[in-house]
Design goal:
single chain; 5-stranded antiparallel sheet
Length: 169
């Protein structure tokens, strides 16, 4: 279990197989299915498979991936955030998702900003992209708030998406 970063309120670490139950909960949130996708993760075995072939494979292959976000005070998992390598994009992509009960509290902004900065430094990146559905208002606001600039739109996974870019100063 590798620590990625810490903020005033959050611990951000790599996911492990011990996070399977949390992954079931998060990936079945209505907002996750609506704005990201239905990953068909319903059982413990599905979650282990998702973790093994998604985040854990990404750590092995690239040295980065989605990380679990924990409340520092209680170590309660509240979301995921990390850098992703997508074949469709020229640069790494910032991805994130949070349990609904922890939205609108600043946690996503705090985690995304921390993960972005830690990832850019650790992997010597000067550009990171982010892609979100046109109607995902909270995600569009979050990206602009942490310094991403809207560059245009693109079709991805059957839907039109806003494409944002973050460049280091």
């Amino acid at each position: 279990m590798k620590l990625i970063s810490e903020t005033e309120r959050l611990i951000i670490r790599q996911l492990t197989l011990d996070d399977a139950e949390f992954i079931i909960q998060l990936l079945n949130e209505e907002s996750f299915i609506r704005y990201i996708a239905d990953k068909n993760v319903r059982t413990h075995a599905d979650a282990v498979n998702y973790l093994m072939n998604g985040p854990l494979a990404s750590y092995r292959d690239y040295g980065f991936g989605l990380n679990v976000i924990l409340l520092k005070e209680t170590t309660t998992p509240i979301g995921i955030c990390g850098l992703l390598k997508r074949a469709e994009l020229d640069y790494l992509d910032l991805g994130y998702a949070f349990l609904t009960e922890f939205c609108q509290k600043g946690y996503a902004t705090e985690a995304a900003f921390s993960v972005l900065n830690a990832g850019m430094k650790a992997h010597s990146l000067d550009t990171v992209l982010a892609v979100t559905l046109l109607d995902n208002e909270s995600s569009n606001r979050l990206l602009q708030k942490i310094g991403f600039e809207l560059k245009g739109t693109m079709a991805l996974y059957g839907s039109q998406n806003n494409v944002y870019e973050y460049m280091s100063a």
